[in-house]
């Protein structure tokens, strides 16, 4: 049972808003005979058409009158207690990021008594505070600066090359605050309890919480749990991340000095996104890639386009390289590679892998074990090897995207409450926020070739679209891969700004099993970027014979 309930006052307020019974208005006393006669006299005046004054009742939110109704459901916790169990909560959600929020909302709307535990004193998780939201807001600010530089109306007198990254993050901080406020209201509206502290298991029905305000701890009991603790950047021991010139993708948001050159180690999604951001700020960038190509899982034409634009922007990409050691000095760092190369720069940003935040959960107490990347194994219902404990989001690995994490959390909760229509997340669009953006869904050309599928390609280059010319887009392409006999859409790949938005049109058509003919026979607004679908479809049909 709970040793300390920090949220009791909040809980009482919420209960007061929702509780059962209809109360009498005003003082509740019966009307007097005199007032009844006055009322009848007033009615007679109305009937006779005599002049009268009507004074409506005045309602004040400051008085004690309240209107209450009976709740429409019985919480599972009450049923559990009738079954001689004594769990305080139907479910506990560990982590308040996208997966945790979605799971908590689904459970609450299913009539469950839910508590969410997160070490931050604000909701949103790493996604809102150090991941998706700040990095994309930062990217947008840099993108705006690039456009100003290109536009002769604004470029005169514009000097942003000596602006510290921390200054560019001003807009990102505003977005974070707005996101936190918005999502906090979601929890309040759904009457979901929040605990700010570090959670660890005592057994499969008991959770220990070290309160974040330093006031002690509490122990709560639960029927089921969902682990949605997310991930953090992987930090190898050979780097000193306490040094002011050594960063990971979380710490980089605190950089408050100007650099002329930066090394980015790791050319995955995060590394490529930050390469775009830094080169957009005018920094020289050395991008160290452990593989022989950029983002090799993408369609080759798309990854080639990214590599081409990186070269155009001045990013120096070094393929098939591996770190040997790093020298750190007060005013510079030197990266030693196993190939014998040495690279000197003002700072280094490590973007090579992420780890699940599971080490503090005391998983051994419930019989769980994370892999060497801190991730948990789940089945198709997001259940772990322990029957009452589920997991979702980055902590289970693929695809490690905020968008997918939200859906995984919702689906895990749906399976937990027994929804018949619940199904695991399978088809997820790729969204990479480089400059320009990359987004795709479905098969690549290489995959279709290996599978010997008779496919054809339809292309639309952004430089030919009126809307792209109006907004000054110089590069970009939309590719539609389709079966040359049935015209079934097999894959869609987009490179260019707004790609992460454009992809959803194709995703919807694929989901509904539409064919290439949909794009040919549908009228698109003109001029729009979406018109690229019609252009690409006609281009593809011209190749069919």
How are the SSEs ordered, and which strands pair?
Layout: H1 8-18, H2 33-48, H3 76-82, E1 89-94, H4 98-109, E2 114-118, H5 125-129, H6 132-150, H7 152-155, H8 165-168, H9 170-189, E3 193-203, E4 206-211, E5 217-227, E6 231-233, E7 246-248, E8 261-265, H10 269-280, E9 284-288, H11 300-313, E10 315-318, E11 323-328, E12 333-337, E13 342-345, E14 347-350, E15 354-356, E16 389-391, H12 402-417, E17 430-432, E18 438-442, H13 445-450, E19 455-461, H14 466-471, E20 477-483, E21 489-495, H15 499-511, H16 516-521, H17 532-541
Parallel strand pairs: 1-2, 1-5, 2-3, 5-16, 7-14, 8-9, 8-14, 9-10
Antiparallel strand pairs: 3-4, 4-5, 6-15, 11-12, 12-13, 17-18, 18-21, 19-20, 20-21
Write up what this structure looks like.
Helices cover 33% and strands 21% of the residues. The protein is an alpha/beta fold and 545 residues long. It has three domains: 218 residues, FAD/NAD(P)-binding domain (3-Layer(bba) Sandwich); 107 residues, FAD/NAD(P)-binding domain (3-Layer(bba) Sandwich), CATH 3.50.50.60; 107 residues, 2-Layer Sandwich (Enolase-like, domain 1). It has a five-stranded mixed β-barrel. Strand 3 and strand 4 form a beta hairpin. The longest helix is centred in the N-terminal third of the chain and has 20 residues. The radius of gyration is 29 Å and the shape is globular. The N and C termini lie far apart (73 Å).
């Amino acid at each position: 049972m709970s040793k300390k309930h920090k949220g009791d006052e909040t809980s009482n307020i919420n209960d007061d808003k929702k509780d059962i019974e209809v109360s009498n208005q005003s003082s509740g006393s019966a009307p007097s005979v005199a007032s009844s006669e006055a009322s009848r006299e007033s009615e007679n005046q109305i009937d006779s058409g005599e002049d009268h004054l009507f004074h409506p009742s005045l309602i004040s939110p400051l008085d004690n009158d309240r209107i209450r109704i009976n709740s429409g459901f019985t919480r599972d916790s009450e049923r559990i207690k009738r079954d001689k169990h004594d769990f305080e909560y139907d479910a506990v959600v560990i982590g308040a990021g996208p997966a945790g929020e979605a799971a908590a909302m689904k459970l609450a709307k299913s009539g469950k008594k839910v508590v969410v535990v997160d070490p931050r004193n604000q909701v949103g998780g790493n996604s809102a505070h150090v991941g998706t939201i700040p990095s994309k807001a930062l990217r947008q600010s840099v993108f705006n600066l690039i456009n100003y530089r290109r536009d002769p109306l604004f470029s005169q007198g514009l000097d942003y090359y000596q602006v510290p990254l921390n200054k560019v993050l001003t807009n990102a901080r505003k977005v974070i605050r707005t996101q936190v406020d918005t999502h906090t209201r979601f929890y309040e509206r759904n009457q979901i309890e929040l605990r700010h502290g570090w959670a660890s298991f005592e057994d499969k029905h008991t959770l220990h919480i070290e309160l974040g305000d330093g006031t002690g701890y509490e122990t709560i009991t639960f029927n089921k749990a969902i682990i949605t603790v997310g991930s953090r950047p992987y930090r190898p021991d050979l780097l000193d991340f306490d040094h002011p010139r050594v960063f990971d993708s979380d710490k980089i948001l605190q950089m408050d000095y100007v650099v002329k050159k930066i090394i980015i180690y790791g050319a995955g999604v995060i590394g490529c996104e930050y390469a775009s951001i830094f080169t957009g700020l005018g920094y020289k960038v050395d991008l160290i890639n452990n593989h022989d190509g950029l983002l090799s899982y993408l369609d080759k034409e798309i990854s080639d386009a990214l590599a081409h634009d990186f070269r155009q922007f001045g990013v120096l990409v070094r393929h098939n390289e591996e770190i040997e050691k790093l020298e750190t000095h007060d005013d510079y760092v030197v990266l030693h590679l196993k190939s014998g190369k040495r690279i000197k720069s003002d700072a280094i940003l490590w973007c090579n892998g992420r780890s699940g935040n599971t080490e503090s959960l005391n998983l051994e107490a419930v019989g769980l074990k994370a892999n060497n990347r801190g991730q948990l194994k789940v089945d198709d219902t997001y259940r772990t090897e322990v029957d009452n404990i589920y997991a979702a989001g980055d902590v289970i690995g693929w695809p490690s995207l905020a968008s997918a994490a939200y859906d995984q959390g919702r689906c895990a909760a749906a399976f937990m409450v027994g929804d018949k229509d619940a199904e695991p997340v399978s088809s997820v669009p790729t969204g990479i926020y480089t400059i320009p953006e990359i987004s795709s869904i479905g098969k690549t050309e290489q995959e279709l070739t290996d599978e010997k599928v008779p496919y054809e390609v339809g292309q639309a280059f952004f430089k030919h679209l009126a809307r792209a010319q109006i907004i000054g887009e110089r590069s970009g392409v939309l590719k539609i891969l389709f079966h040359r006999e049935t015209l079934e859409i097999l894959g869609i790949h987009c490179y260019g700004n707004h790609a992460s938005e454009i992809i959803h049109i194709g995703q919807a058509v694929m989901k509904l099993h539409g064919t290439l003919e949909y794009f040919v026979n549908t009228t698109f607004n003109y001029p729009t970027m979406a018109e690229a679908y019609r252009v690409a479809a006609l281009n593809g049909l011209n190749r069919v014979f």
